[in-house]
Amino acid sequence: MSRSRSYAALCLFLFGAVVLTACGSKASTTADAATSEQTSTPVTDVPRRVPPGTSLRVGDQLDALKLVLGTAGQDKAFSYDVKYASFVGGPPMLQAFKAGAIDIGTVADTPLIFAQAAHQDVVAVAAWAPQHGSLELIATPGSHISSWKDLKGKKLAYQQGTVLEAVALQGLQHAGLTLHDVKSVNIPVTQISAALQSGSVDAAILVPPLDTAYLASHPDAKIVDRPEDITDRVSFIIASKKALDNPAKVAAIRDYVQRLVRSHKWIAAHPQEWVQTFYVGQYHLPAAQGLAQLQRIGPTSFLPLPGDLVAPQQALADLYVDAGDIPKKLDVSSEFDGRLNAAVREAQAG
After folding, report:
1. Which three-class secondary structure state does DSSP give residue 205?
2. Which phi and psi (to 5°) does residue 301 adopt?
3. Can you spell out the DSSP letters for 214-225?
4. Confidence class of residue 331 from pLDDT cuts 50, 70 and 90?
5. Spatial distance between the Cα atoms of 335 and 140, rounded to a whole number of angstroms
6. Do 263 and 204 belong to one domain?
């Protein structure tokens, strides 16, 4: 598999864009009504009509959004001009927001925190997460690592500034450790399997199926943990505040988010088609193996904003402060804008 293809596929997993329900089960995409829901803009203030000539500039993670919408047939008959820009990871996308080059984009937990720390005018307007995490802590044979606590003094590979670092921070915290207790090896996600293969690290954070070849050739290697923190699973559509001040773009963003919700519903209801498109087409894996991974990940839900996300996101931001990645404490409640909550519910019900 080429480097660009493997990274593109990884992005699809990391940002939750295609984490879908298992075969034979109905997707759970209904937000929990008992969740505390706050909206920064009344529902009546969200325009529905997109004026002619409106354009929406979308930051994509190596065509992940395009693939999801396209697979579900939701990429047709836009009433506005969609202009995609492709990025490798959240940090360069944040640079594009800073330059005013895009209106919305998809990121995981960590870029949203770093955007706030950098005083960027972006907020999350939609969020979704699978039932179970796809990221894994994998230990090499002979490393004698069977828990996060066993990582003390060991070499741990992950890419800084990404959700992989979030997994490291939170996993170590659960074990009473910090990054100071391990030897961090900061490498691109596409090189992590090679680091495990060479034995230059003792453990790493990775996501299937990029781990498939390594685990197949090293049956004694161990999947130590699959983190379940919501911040390790959640993905966001973030928007610039400038775009949100423009009624025409807000209407376009509303429509685009609804298309994304409907795409998840369609793909979840057609797992065989998705397996052929993604697991077989992208990874050349057997269909049965793709279905097994869908079953393990479980159903995806769209979440109300801010809902229950503030507390776990705050805890993660505090960990970044403690690690020295962020200079001072943040109030992450300002990262969320719930004006599209009703639009998400409408798309879920439709």
Report:
1. strand
2. -125, 140
3. HHHH-TT-EEEE
4. very high
5. 38
6. no
**Tens-place pLDDT, residues 136-162:** 999 999 999 999 999 999 999 998 888
CA distance 206 to 6: 12
Q: What's the rounded Cα separation, in Å, for the pair 246 and 243?
A: 5
Domain final residue pick, 204, 227, 250: 227
Tokens of residue 96, six digits = 């594009």
Nearest-10 Cα torsion for 78, 84, 88, 89: -60
Which residues are registered as beta bridge partners of 138?
A: 204, 223
Name the nearest CA neighbour of 133 among 32, 216, 234, 212.
234
Number of domains the chain contains: 2
| Cα distance between the two ends of the chain | 38
Residue identified by tokens 């929990």 is 32
- What DSSP designation does 228 have? -
Angle at CA of residue 236, ends 281 and 89, nearest 5°:
60
To the question of pTM greater than 0.90 for the whole model, the response is no
- 294 vs 125, residue with greater confidence: 125
Which candidate, 51, 67, 50, 59, places its Cα nearest to that of 8?
Answer: 67
Give me the mean pLDDT over the 77-87 stretch.
96
Domain around 39: 3-132+232-349
**Do 250 and 108 fall within a single domain?**
yes
Q: Residue 333: CA atoms inside 13 Å, Cβ hemisphere, count?
A: 6
Q: What is the pLDDT of residue 27?
A: 35
Burial of 3 (0-12, 13-18, 19+ CB in 10 A): exposed
90 contacts 16 by C-beta, under 8 angstroms:
no
Closest residue by Cα to residue 122 from 93, 150, 148, 149: 93
pLDDT for position 165: 93
Residue 329 and residue 240 share a domain: yes
